[in-house]
User: Which sequence fits this backbone?
Protein backbone atom coordinates (compact mmCIF):
# COMPACT_ATOMS: atom_id res chain seq x y z
CA UNK A 1 0.00 0.00 0.00
CA UNK A 2 1.51 3.31 -1.13
CA UNK A 3 1.73 6.19 1.31
CA UNK A 4 -0.60 9.05 0.46
CA UNK A 5 1.25 12.23 -0.54
CA UNK A 6 0.28 15.13 1.69
CA UNK A 7 -0.85 18.38 0.12
CA UNK A 8 1.87 20.99 0.84
CA UNK A 9 -0.81 23.69 1.01
CA UNK A 10 -2.36 21.90 3.99
CA UNK A 11 0.88 20.43 5.35
CA UNK A 12 3.45 23.19 4.73
CA UNK A 13 7.18 22.37 4.96
CA UNK A 14 9.74 25.04 5.74
CA UNK A 15 12.95 24.98 3.72
CA UNK A 16 16.42 25.16 5.30
CA UNK A 17 16.01 28.82 6.24
CA UNK A 18 18.45 30.63 8.49
CA UNK A 19 17.37 32.89 11.33
CA UNK A 20 18.77 35.30 13.86
CA UNK A 21 17.34 37.03 16.96
CA UNK A 22 16.95 40.80 17.00
CA UNK A 23 15.63 43.37 19.45
CA UNK A 24 13.56 46.48 18.83
CA UNK A 25 13.28 48.33 22.11
CA UNK A 26 12.12 45.78 24.65
CA UNK A 27 10.59 43.48 22.06
CA UNK A 28 12.46 40.49 20.64
CA UNK A 29 11.92 39.19 17.12
CA UNK A 30 13.38 36.65 14.73
CA UNK A 31 14.74 37.55 11.27
CA UNK A 32 14.58 34.82 8.64
CA UNK A 33 16.37 34.67 5.30
CA UNK A 34 17.29 32.20 2.57
CA UNK A 35 21.01 31.26 2.76
CA UNK A 36 20.97 29.99 -0.84
CA UNK A 37 20.13 33.46 -2.12
CA UNK A 38 17.35 32.02 -4.27
CA UNK A 39 15.09 34.40 -2.36
CA UNK A 40 16.47 37.81 -1.57
CA UNK A 41 13.65 38.46 0.90
CA UNK A 42 13.70 38.63 4.68
CA UNK A 43 10.87 38.05 7.11
CA UNK A 44 10.66 39.39 10.66
CA UNK A 45 8.33 37.51 13.00
CA UNK A 46 7.55 37.74 16.74
CA UNK A 47 8.70 34.93 19.00
CA UNK A 48 5.25 33.40 19.32
CA UNK A 49 5.06 32.89 15.54
CA UNK A 50 8.60 31.58 15.40
CA UNK A 51 7.65 28.90 17.92
CA UNK A 52 5.34 27.44 15.27
CA UNK A 53 8.10 26.97 12.70
CA UNK A 54 9.22 23.69 14.26
CA UNK A 55 5.84 22.27 13.22
CA UNK A 56 6.15 23.40 9.58
CA UNK A 57 7.72 20.06 8.72
CA UNK A 58 5.32 18.69 6.12
CA UNK A 59 3.86 16.35 8.74
CA UNK A 60 1.64 18.77 10.68
CA UNK A 61 -1.49 20.19 9.10
CA UNK A 62 -2.41 23.85 9.51
CA UNK A 63 -5.09 22.76 11.96
CA UNK A 64 -2.49 20.87 14.02
CA UNK A 65 -0.19 23.91 13.96
CA UNK A 66 -3.04 25.95 15.42
CA UNK A 67 -3.52 23.33 18.14
CA UNK A 68 0.18 23.55 19.07
CA UNK A 69 -0.19 27.33 19.41
CA UNK A 70 -3.15 26.85 21.73
CA UNK A 71 -1.18 24.38 23.88
CA UNK A 72 1.75 26.74 24.19
CA UNK A 73 0.04 30.10 24.67
CA UNK A 74 -3.43 29.19 25.95
CA UNK A 75 -5.22 31.12 23.23
CA UNK A 76 -6.50 30.47 19.73
CA UNK A 77 -4.48 31.61 16.73
CA UNK A 78 -6.98 33.11 14.33
CA UNK A 79 -6.96 31.17 11.04
CA UNK A 80 -6.50 34.33 8.96
CA UNK A 81 -3.27 35.13 10.84
CA UNK A 82 -1.89 31.66 10.25
CA UNK A 83 -2.98 31.77 6.61
CA UNK A 84 -1.21 35.12 6.17
CA UNK A 85 1.99 33.77 7.75
CA UNK A 86 1.99 30.74 5.43
CA UNK A 87 1.26 32.95 2.42
CA UNK A 88 4.16 35.25 3.33
CA UNK A 89 6.50 32.29 3.68
CA UNK A 90 5.41 30.85 0.35
CA UNK A 91 5.64 34.18 -1.45
CA UNK A 92 9.21 34.59 -0.20
CA UNK A 93 10.10 31.05 -1.38
CA UNK A 94 10.72 29.91 2.19
CA UNK A 95 8.47 26.84 1.80
CA UNK A 96 8.92 23.63 -0.14
CA UNK A 97 6.52 23.40 -3.05
CA UNK A 98 5.85 24.24 -6.69
CA UNK A 99 6.88 27.92 -6.48
CA UNK A 100 10.22 27.03 -4.92
CA UNK A 101 10.92 24.16 -7.34
CA UNK A 102 10.16 26.33 -10.37
CA UNK A 103 12.38 29.15 -9.10
CA UNK A 104 15.21 26.67 -8.41
CA UNK A 105 15.09 25.20 -11.94
CA UNK A 106 15.11 28.70 -13.47
CA UNK A 107 18.05 29.76 -11.31
CA UNK A 108 20.06 26.60 -12.13
CA UNK A 109 19.52 27.07 -15.87
CA UNK A 110 20.59 30.70 -15.63
CA UNK A 111 23.70 29.74 -13.65
CA UNK A 112 24.75 27.08 -16.15
CA UNK A 113 24.19 29.37 -19.13
CA UNK A 114 26.21 32.26 -17.67
CA UNK A 115 29.79 32.57 -19.00
CA UNK A 116 31.22 32.93 -15.47
CA UNK A 117 30.12 32.80 -11.87
CA UNK A 118 29.86 36.51 -11.06
CA UNK A 119 31.11 37.91 -7.72
CA UNK A 120 28.24 38.08 -5.25
CA UNK A 121 29.88 39.84 -2.30
CA UNK A 122 32.07 42.51 -3.89
CA UNK A 123 31.09 45.87 -2.46
CA UNK A 124 29.64 44.15 0.61
CA UNK A 125 32.26 41.92 2.21
CA UNK A 126 35.22 43.37 0.32
CA UNK A 127 35.92 46.27 -2.05
CA UNK A 128 34.32 46.26 -5.49
CA UNK A 129 36.69 48.66 -7.25
CA UNK A 130 39.83 46.77 -8.41
CA UNK A 131 42.31 49.40 -7.26
CA UNK A 132 40.62 49.80 -3.90
CA UNK A 133 40.51 46.01 -3.50
CA UNK A 134 44.25 45.73 -4.17
CA UNK A 135 44.92 48.43 -1.57
CA UNK A 136 42.56 46.72 0.88
CA UNK A 137 44.34 43.38 0.53
CA UNK A 138 47.78 44.99 0.81
CA UNK A 139 46.59 46.73 3.99
CA UNK A 140 45.69 43.40 5.60
CA UNK A 141 49.32 42.28 5.37
CA UNK A 142 50.57 45.42 7.13
CA UNK A 143 47.76 45.74 9.68
CA UNK A 144 48.54 45.47 13.38
CA UNK A 145 46.68 42.14 13.50
CA UNK A 146 48.38 40.94 10.31
CA UNK A 147 51.56 38.88 9.85
CA UNK A 148 55.06 40.09 10.57
CA UNK A 149 57.09 41.66 7.77
CA UNK A 150 59.88 39.21 8.57
CA UNK A 151 60.36 36.43 5.98
CA UNK A 152 58.56 33.18 6.74
CA UNK A 153 60.60 30.30 8.16
CA UNK A 154 59.08 28.23 5.32
CA UNK A 155 60.13 30.62 2.57
CA UNK A 156 60.89 28.83 -0.70
CA UNK A 157 59.41 25.50 0.41
CA UNK A 158 56.71 23.62 -1.50
CA UNK A 159 53.41 24.50 0.18
CA UNK A 160 50.82 21.73 0.45
CA UNK A 161 47.82 23.43 2.03
CA UNK A 162 46.19 26.21 4.01
CA UNK A 163 43.31 26.59 6.43
CA UNK A 164 41.84 30.08 6.10
CA UNK A 165 38.75 31.77 7.63
CA UNK A 166 35.70 32.40 5.47
CA UNK A 167 34.35 35.30 7.53
CA UNK A 168 33.74 38.65 5.79
CA UNK A 169 37.04 39.76 4.23
CA UNK A 170 36.69 43.37 5.38
CA UNK A 171 36.59 42.19 9.01
CA UNK A 172 38.85 39.12 9.07
CA UNK A 173 41.28 40.16 6.32
CA UNK A 174 44.38 40.25 8.57
CA UNK A 175 43.71 36.60 9.53
CA UNK A 176 43.58 35.67 5.84
CA UNK A 177 46.90 37.49 5.38
CA UNK A 178 48.66 35.19 7.87
CA UNK A 179 47.93 32.21 5.61
CA UNK A 180 48.47 33.94 2.29
CA UNK A 181 51.83 35.36 3.38
CA UNK A 182 53.00 31.73 3.61
CA UNK A 183 51.67 31.06 0.13
CA UNK A 184 53.20 34.24 -1.29
CA UNK A 185 56.66 33.30 -0.02
CA UNK A 186 56.44 29.58 -0.87
CA UNK A 187 57.17 27.82 -4.13
CA UNK A 188 53.92 28.35 -5.98
CA UNK A 189 51.95 25.20 -6.92
CA UNK A 190 50.20 24.62 -10.23
CA UNK A 191 46.58 24.48 -9.08
CA UNK A 192 44.47 25.21 -6.00
CA UNK A 193 41.76 22.89 -4.74
CA UNK A 194 39.41 25.06 -2.69
CA UNK A 195 37.22 23.32 -0.14
CA UNK A 196 34.40 25.60 0.96
CA UNK A 197 31.43 25.13 3.25
CA UNK A 198 27.94 25.06 1.74
CA UNK A 199 26.28 27.04 4.52
CA UNK A 200 22.85 26.53 2.95
CA UNK A 201 23.32 22.76 2.89
CA UNK A 202 23.52 20.31 0.00
CA UNK A 203 21.45 17.41 -1.31
CA UNK A 204 24.74 15.47 -1.61
CA UNK A 205 27.85 15.53 0.61
CA UNK A 206 29.97 17.45 -1.92
CA UNK A 207 29.23 19.80 -4.81
CA UNK A 208 31.66 20.62 -7.61
CA UNK A 209 31.19 23.23 -10.34
CA UNK A 210 33.17 23.74 -13.54
CA UNK A 211 32.18 27.39 -13.77
CA UNK A 212 35.04 29.92 -13.91
CA UNK A 213 34.78 32.47 -11.09
CA UNK A 214 34.94 36.20 -11.77
CA UNK A 215 36.19 38.75 -9.23
CA UNK A 216 36.85 42.50 -9.52
CA UNK A 217 40.47 41.52 -10.31
CA UNK A 218 39.59 39.25 -13.22
CA UNK A 219 38.59 35.63 -13.86
CA UNK A 220 39.94 32.62 -11.97
CA UNK A 221 39.46 29.63 -14.30
CA UNK A 222 38.75 26.12 -13.15
CA UNK A 223 41.44 23.57 -13.88
CA UNK A 224 40.12 21.71 -16.92
CA UNK A 225 42.37 18.59 -16.72
CA UNK A 226 41.21 17.84 -13.18
CA UNK A 227 37.59 18.70 -13.98
CA UNK A 228 37.66 16.46 -17.06
CA UNK A 229 39.15 13.61 -15.01
CA UNK A 230 36.40 13.97 -12.40
CA UNK A 231 33.67 13.83 -15.03
CA UNK A 232 35.16 11.01 -17.08
CA UNK A 233 35.57 8.78 -14.02
CA UNK A 234 31.97 8.83 -12.86
CA UNK A 235 31.91 12.16 -11.02
CA UNK A 236 29.03 13.79 -12.88
CA UNK A 237 26.74 13.31 -9.86
CA UNK A 238 28.87 15.77 -7.89
CA UNK A 239 27.79 18.53 -10.29
CA UNK A 240 24.06 17.97 -9.67
CA UNK A 241 23.85 20.53 -6.84
CA UNK A 242 26.19 23.14 -8.35
CA UNK A 243 23.67 25.96 -7.93
CA UNK A 244 24.92 26.00 -4.32
CA UNK A 245 28.02 27.79 -5.63
CA UNK A 246 25.98 30.72 -6.91
CA UNK A 247 25.49 32.48 -3.58
CA UNK A 248 28.03 30.75 -1.34
CA UNK A 249 30.80 33.04 -0.11
CA UNK A 250 33.41 30.64 1.24
CA UNK A 251 35.24 30.08 -2.06
CA UNK A 252 34.70 33.59 -3.40
CA UNK A 253 36.40 35.16 -0.37
CA UNK A 254 39.66 33.32 -1.10
CA UNK A 255 40.01 34.34 -4.73
CA UNK A 256 41.17 37.99 -4.45
CA UNK A 257 43.94 36.80 -2.10
CA UNK A 258 45.00 34.12 -4.59
CA UNK A 259 44.99 36.66 -7.39
CA UNK A 260 47.06 39.18 -5.44
CA UNK A 261 49.53 36.84 -3.74
CA UNK A 262 50.17 34.41 -6.62
CA UNK A 263 48.24 35.50 -9.69
CA UNK A 264 50.37 38.60 -10.25
CA UNK A 265 53.34 36.29 -10.92
CA UNK A 266 51.84 33.06 -12.23
CA UNK A 267 48.50 31.97 -13.75
CA UNK A 268 46.06 30.64 -11.16
CA UNK A 269 43.55 27.85 -11.73
CA UNK A 270 41.34 26.09 -9.23
CA UNK A 271 38.97 23.25 -8.41
CA UNK A 272 35.99 24.66 -6.42
CA UNK A 273 34.46 22.10 -4.03
CA UNK A 274 31.67 22.81 -1.55
CA UNK A 275 30.86 20.35 1.22
CA UNK A 276 28.18 19.85 3.85
CA UNK A 277 28.48 16.86 6.16
CA UNK A 278 28.96 16.38 9.89
CA UNK A 279 31.36 14.25 11.98
CA UNK A 280 28.44 11.98 12.87
CA UNK A 281 28.17 10.97 9.21
CA UNK A 282 31.01 8.49 9.75
CA UNK A 283 29.77 6.80 12.93
CA UNK A 284 26.01 6.48 12.50
CA UNK A 285 25.22 3.08 10.92
CA UNK A 286 22.10 4.56 9.36
CA UNK A 287 24.32 7.01 7.43
CA UNK A 288 26.72 4.41 6.05
CA UNK A 289 25.56 5.02 2.50
CA UNK A 290 26.15 8.75 2.95
CA UNK A 291 29.63 8.12 4.42
CA UNK A 292 30.43 5.78 1.52
CA UNK A 293 29.65 8.57 -0.92
CA UNK A 294 32.06 10.88 0.90
CA UNK A 295 34.75 8.21 0.55
CA UNK A 296 33.95 7.83 -3.15
CA UNK A 297 34.33 11.56 -3.67
CA UNK A 298 37.67 11.64 -1.80
CA UNK A 299 38.96 8.76 -3.94
CA UNK A 300 37.74 10.45 -7.11
CA UNK A 301 39.45 13.76 -6.24
CA UNK A 302 42.68 11.99 -5.27
CA UNK A 303 42.77 10.08 -8.57
CA UNK A 304 41.93 13.17 -10.64
CA UNK A 305 44.69 15.20 -8.98
CA UNK A 306 47.23 12.41 -9.45
CA UNK A 307 46.26 11.88 -13.10
CA UNK A 308 46.74 15.58 -13.86
CA UNK A 309 50.40 15.42 -12.84
CA UNK A 310 50.11 18.88 -11.33
CA UNK A 311 51.26 20.08 -7.92
CA UNK A 312 48.29 21.20 -5.87
CA UNK A 313 47.74 23.36 -2.83
CA UNK A 314 44.63 22.43 -0.85
CA UNK A 315 42.81 25.35 0.78
CA UNK A 316 40.10 24.78 3.39
CA UNK A 317 37.92 27.89 3.67
CA UNK A 318 36.45 27.26 7.09
CA UNK A 319 35.49 28.98 10.30
CA UNK A 320 35.54 27.07 13.58
CA UNK A 321 33.15 27.41 16.53
CA UNK A 322 29.81 29.24 16.36
CA UNK A 323 28.50 29.96 19.85
CA UNK A 324 25.57 32.01 21.10
CA UNK A 325 21.85 32.44 20.54
CA UNK A 326 22.31 33.09 16.82
CA UNK A 327 23.50 29.50 16.50
CA UNK A 328 20.89 27.83 18.66
CA UNK A 329 22.41 28.15 22.13
CA UNK A 330 20.11 29.07 24.99
CA UNK A 331 22.21 31.96 26.30
CA UNK A 332 24.71 34.54 25.13
CA UNK A 333 28.42 33.70 25.52
CA UNK A 334 30.26 35.06 28.54
CA UNK A 335 33.99 35.74 28.86
CA UNK A 336 34.30 32.44 30.70
CA UNK A 337 32.41 30.43 28.08
CA UNK A 338 34.42 32.02 25.27
CA UNK A 339 37.75 31.20 26.93
CA UNK A 340 36.60 27.64 27.46
CA UNK A 341 35.63 27.53 23.79
CA UNK A 342 39.04 28.90 22.80
CA UNK A 343 40.85 26.26 24.84
CA UNK A 344 38.77 23.55 23.16
CA UNK A 345 39.45 25.07 19.73
CA UNK A 346 43.19 25.03 20.32
CA UNK A 347 43.05 21.42 21.49
CA UNK A 348 41.10 20.53 18.35
CA UNK A 349 43.58 22.43 16.14
CA UNK A 350 46.42 20.26 17.47
CA UNK A 351 44.74 17.36 15.64
CA UNK A 352 44.56 19.49 12.49
CA UNK A 353 48.27 20.33 12.82
CA UNK A 354 49.01 16.61 13.13
CA UNK A 355 46.95 15.86 9.99
CA UNK A 356 44.85 13.48 12.09
CA UNK A 357 41.57 13.27 10.20
CA UNK A 358 40.21 10.39 12.29
CA UNK A 359 41.14 12.12 15.55
CA UNK A 360 39.45 15.30 14.27
CA UNK A 361 36.24 13.35 13.68
CA UNK A 362 36.35 11.61 17.06
CA UNK A 363 37.04 14.87 18.90
CA UNK A 364 33.95 16.55 17.47
CA UNK A 365 31.73 13.49 17.85
CA UNK A 366 32.65 13.35 21.53
CA UNK A 367 31.75 17.03 21.80
CA UNK A 368 28.28 16.34 20.36
CA UNK A 369 28.31 19.54 18.28
CA UNK A 370 28.22 21.78 21.35
CA UNK A 371 30.30 24.47 19.62
CA UNK A 372 28.85 24.10 16.12
CA UNK A 373 32.14 23.78 14.24
CA UNK A 374 30.67 24.53 10.82
CA UNK A 375 34.01 24.31 9.02
CA UNK A 376 34.39 20.61 9.79
CA UNK A 377 33.76 19.14 6.34
CA UNK A 378 36.17 21.43 4.46
CA UNK A 379 38.98 20.83 6.96
CA UNK A 380 38.28 17.10 6.97
CA UNK A 381 38.60 16.90 3.17
CA UNK A 382 41.89 18.76 3.36
CA UNK A 383 43.23 16.40 6.03
CA UNK A 384 42.22 13.35 4.01
CA UNK A 385 43.78 14.53 0.75
CA UNK A 386 46.85 16.50 1.79
CA UNK A 387 50.28 14.95 1.31
CA UNK A 388 51.87 16.52 4.36
CA UNK A 389 52.87 15.16 7.75
CA UNK A 390 52.53 18.34 9.76
CA UNK A 391 50.88 21.73 9.77
CA UNK A 392 51.20 24.86 11.85
CA UNK A 393 48.49 27.12 13.25
CA UNK A 394 49.62 30.65 12.48
CA UNK A 395 46.93 32.76 14.12
CA UNK A 396 43.64 32.35 15.99
CA UNK A 397 40.95 34.95 16.63
CA UNK A 398 37.21 35.50 16.95
CA UNK A 399 34.45 37.82 15.76
CA UNK A 400 31.38 38.97 17.71
CA UNK A 401 28.57 38.98 15.16
CA UNK A 402 25.45 40.41 16.82
CA UNK A 403 24.04 42.35 19.75
CA UNK A 404 23.68 39.12 21.73
CA UNK A 405 27.44 38.52 21.74
CA UNK A 406 27.18 35.53 19.39
CA UNK A 407 30.73 34.61 18.40
CA UNK A 408 32.54 32.93 15.53
CA UNK A 409 36.11 31.69 15.94
CA UNK A 410 38.60 31.09 13.16
CA UNK A 411 42.27 30.35 12.49
CA UNK A 412 44.89 30.39 9.78
CA UNK A 413 47.20 27.41 9.32
CA UNK A 414 49.75 26.26 6.75
CA UNK A 415 51.05 22.82 5.72
CA UNK A 416 54.43 22.15 4.08
Assistant:
Amino acid sequence: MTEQVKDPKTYPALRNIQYSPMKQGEEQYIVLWDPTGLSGEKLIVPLNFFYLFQFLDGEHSLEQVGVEYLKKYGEFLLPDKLDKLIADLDQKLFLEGDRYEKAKVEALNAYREAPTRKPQFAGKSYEHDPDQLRRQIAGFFTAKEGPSAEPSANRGKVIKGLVVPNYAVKDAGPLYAWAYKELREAEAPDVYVLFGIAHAGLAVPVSVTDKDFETPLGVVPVNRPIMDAIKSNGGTEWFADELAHQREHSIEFQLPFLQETVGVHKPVSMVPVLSAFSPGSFLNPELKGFADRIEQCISLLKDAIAASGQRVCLIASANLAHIGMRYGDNAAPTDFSFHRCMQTDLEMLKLVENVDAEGFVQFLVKEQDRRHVLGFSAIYLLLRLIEADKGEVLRYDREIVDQFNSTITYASAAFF
